[in-house]
Amino acid sequence: MDASPTNAPLPVGDVLAAHPLLAGVLAVFAFLHLVCAGLTVGGVLFTLVYQLRGLAVRDYDVLARDLSGPLIVLMNLAALTGVVEIMLGTTLYPVPFYEGSSPIGSIWPLLLPPLAAAFAVTWLHQRSWDALARHKGLHVTLIATAAVLFLAVQLISITGVDSALQGGRQALRFADAALLPAVLPHFLHLVLASLTLSAVFLMRVVGSSAYDVTGRFRALTRTEIKTQLASVALATLALQVLAGPLLYVAGAGVHDLRYHLAIGLGVLFALPALHWLWQEVTVPTRGPGQRYGYIAGTLALAMLFMVVARQLTHAAHFTPKVVVAEAPAAAH
Fold first, then answer.
1. Which end of the chain is more exposed for a tag (fewer CB within 10 A), N or C?
2. pTM of the prediction?
């Protein structure tokens, strides 16, 4: 049964210009959701890697426990901002959301089981550091499972949205929708962005004077940890800049100068962040350092413009085009 509304009014023309306040609030929550979801996914991946290294070097196990602390809060914030973003999206583009969802009804329900399981497994992992102290293999398995589940949630979500952008009816099954040309580049770009964002955030946490390094670690130093995180941020951000053309080509159907301008500004602000991250790797500063403000600020602006570009992509694909039929010639 097709759940698409047949008599709902279609938004015609520039939806963003017609509803600037709603579009602005949607962009804000899309940005917040991207940040919270990125920090969650990246935080889980960093926890997994450091806990694996902690099997051989105890300091990394301690670091993994410290870095996993904010995950519960971030998960809840990601879920909250995601729900608000979806509600605002269905308000701004009601018919396209229904049409994009009804024929791929087998996709969106797939989100719920892995999302619920990811929350439960992450919570269990966070609460069992002491209980499973002598069973590290099981504890690592929990966070590895959470990482796989969160990545699955991201892939399902991206597949659903990109399928809706393609008109929805082209992909009736998840396997078909996942093969759309924009899905894999979008997924890889999002995973890389999550690692960049998390690495920069953790640089601030570790670099803070409130974080007691000497009392926690036997051999690791603050500078060493920060350099590791900066290296990850540098590598993943560089890959995003290099892989950006794939997403740009995927959005080639958008004929809006604002879209191209937003993409260009996003790349423009990412370039100085690369420069400062390179300096942080080669000549690290003590504490957060003055460079951190520059890095975080330029990355925030780059992310903001990428969110704007994404919203312009939605507007271009979701807004129906007005087709004016020619009047039939009068009979002679």
1. C
2. 0.84
